[in-house]
TrEMBL record:
Family named by the database record: Belongs to the FAH family.
Required co-factors: Mg(2+)
Name the UniProt record assigns to this protein: 2-hydroxyhepta-2,4-diene-1,7-dioate isomerase
Matches recorded under PANTHER family: 4-HYDROXYPHENYLACETATE CATABOLISM PROTEIN, ACYLPYRUVASE
Pfam families documented for this protein: FAA_hydrolase (PF01557)
GO BP annotations, alphabetical order: 4-hydroxyphenylacetate catabolic process
Lineage: Bacteria, Pseudomonadati, Pseudomonadota, Betaproteobacteria, Burkholderiales
Domain Fumarylacetoacetase-like C-terminal: 48-247
UniProt keyword annotation of Amino-acid biosynthesis present: no
UniProt GO MF annotations: 5-carboxymethyl-2-hydroxymuconate delta-isomerase activity; 5-oxopent-3-ene-1,2,5-tricarboxylate decarboxylase activity; hydrolase activity; metal ion binding
Keyword Cytoplasm: no
InterPro entries in the cross-refs: Fumarylacetoacetase-like_C, Fumarylacetoacetase_C_sf, HPA_isomer/decarb_C
Keywords: Hydrolase, Isomerase, Metal-binding
């Protein structure tokens, strides 16, 4: 099943996709709404958000970096997260801001010292992220700083949380990004350097993962600058189609 969190009529609701029709949602009380009638929220209430750097060999090569020998991880604050069909702000004065289509793994139960062969038992489901990066401030891909990866509104997630059992082959899913309808990025989760079971086993070997924690698993090659007015769609086979629109940063208003 595909689950969503949305705001509608002054309240936050849990919703589900109508069978065979992702453009309509059914609320718990039975009401059916079109996707354009609601405000989409990240499908999971944000907890700890882990993000992988250089987890696709083609992306590492694209950036002229050697593929890492262990996961390269940074954390993201909840201020970065927005939902489907929302606006991402391009900060004023930056020269290069690119998208990153990523498979999101959502932890479903407390995980500590999980063997790789049992890792999927700890997954609640999957979503799509677009983890924008402000390249101007990138000093080292191994340690992206806060100004690169922790900007307000720069990590759309959604639209759906798709149940684990509805994604039988998470390591064989096609990824694609379009900018204004033009395909700019294509790849497959099978090309991850560290796959989902490896990541869960690795994280849980030294810390406890909790329900609702999210792992953003990295992006393949094919990055391009995005500008205000651009519609960016990041899509993962069987998971969903996440739409975001780039808007310009508004100038600071003087206090009254």
């Amino acid at each position: 099943m595909k689950h969503a969190r949305i705001a509608y009529d002054g309240a936050i609701h849990q919703a589900a996709a109508m069978p065979g029709d992702d453009s309509h949602l059914r609320l718990a009380d039975g009401r059916v709404l079109h996707e354009s009638e609601v405000v989409w929220l990240p499908p999971v209430v944000p907890r700890t958000v882990f993000a992988l750097g250089l987890n696709y060999a083609d992306h590492a090569k694209e950036l002229a970096f050697k593929a890492p020998e262990e996961p390269l991880v940074f954390l993201k604050g909840p201020n970065t997260l927005i939902g489907h069909r929302a606006h991402t702000v391009r900060p004023a004065g930056v020269a290069f801001m690119h998208y990153e289509c990523e498979l999101v793994v959502v932890i479903g139960k407390t995980a500590r010292d999980v063997p790789r062969e049992h890792a999927y038992e700890y997954v609640a489901g999957y979503s799509v992220a677009n983890d924008y990066a402000i390249r101007d401030y990138l000093e080292n891909y191994y340690r992206p700083n806060l100004r690169v990866k922790s900007r307000d509104t720069c990590t759309p997630i959604g639209p759906w949380l798709v149940d684990r059992d509805d994604v039988p082959e998470p390591m064989n899913l096609a990824l694609r990004t379009t900018v204004n309808g033009r395909v700019t990025q294509e790849g497959s989760t099978r090309d991850m350097i560290f796959d989902v079971p490896t990541l869960i086993a690795w994280f849980s070997s030294f810390m406890t993962l909790s329900p609702g924690d999210m792992i953003l698993t990295g992006t393949p090659e094919g990055l391009a600058d995005t500008r205000p007015g651009d519609e960016v769609i990041t899509e993962i086979e069987g998971i969903g189609r996440l739409v975001s629109t780039i808007v310009a940063e508004e100038p600071n208003k003087e206090p009254a």
